[in-house]
Amino acid sequence: MEVKKIGVVGCGLMGRGIVEVSAKAGYDVTVSEINQELLDKGMNAIKSSLAKAVEKGRSTEDEKNAILKRIKGTTNTQDFKDRDLVVEAAIENIELKKKIFKELDGICPPETILASNTSCLSVIDIASVTKRQPKVMGVHFFNPVPVMKLVELVRTITTVVTGHSKGSVSRQNERHALAPSMLAASYNSASIFFSPATNKNMASPKFFQT
């Protein structure tokens, strides 16, 4: 399965950055928030970031408008029912994340990859509330997301991984298969670091860019 449609849970600082780079990479993106006020705040921040890129000559008005057309905001998690990949970017609270993953597990198709942007919590603990543990992983972006060209993919002891050597660092634009679906190195300017599976599935403190 090719990843074409991405969902992002949370439109705060990290979530909106993930939305922006995903849409820039050409993906159809749906982002959710718990209420309309927070959603509007996040969407306005994305628009502001894209407008600044135009002002500084890093993008054009047409490119900005095309990116915005690929983004849909929602307060209804049922809108993730057609997503190929959903990235959770809620606050670092394990019980909240488990609640989100349990809900997503009941909404998303069986082939959907569920990922957490957590930088400090156990991904396997989060995955334990789902019926798709082989399709759950960490996708850790760095702040600020539109600037930091590094993404850490964290596999758990249950994540099904194929297509690369353990602990390898990918080259730019290289693609790898994870889940059993193909999760592309979607963000074309980013380097990907595969964190080895450990008991706690935590990231290595050392990261690499190629």
Q: What CATH architecture do you see?
A: 3-Layer(aba) Sandwich
Count of runs of 4 or more consecutive helical residues: 5
Strand-residue fraction?
A: 15-25%
The CATH C-level class name: Alpha Beta
Strand order of the largest sheet: 3-2-1-4-5-6-7-10
In short:
By secondary structure, the protein is an alpha/beta fold. 29% of the residues lie in helices and 20% in strands.
Describe the protein's architecture and organization:
This protein has 210 residues and is of the alpha/beta class. It has one domain: Rossmann fold (3-Layer(aba) Sandwich). It is built from five helices and ten strands. An eight-stranded mixed beta sheet has the order 3-2-1-4-5-6-7-10, with helices on both faces. A two-stranded antiparallel ribbon has the order 8-9. Strand 1, helix 1 and strand 2 form a beta-alpha-beta unit. Helix 1 packs across helix 2. The C terminus is likely disordered.
Please give a handful of descriptors for the protein shown.
210 residues, alpha/beta, Rossmann fold, 8-stranded mixed sheet, 5 helices, disordered C terminus
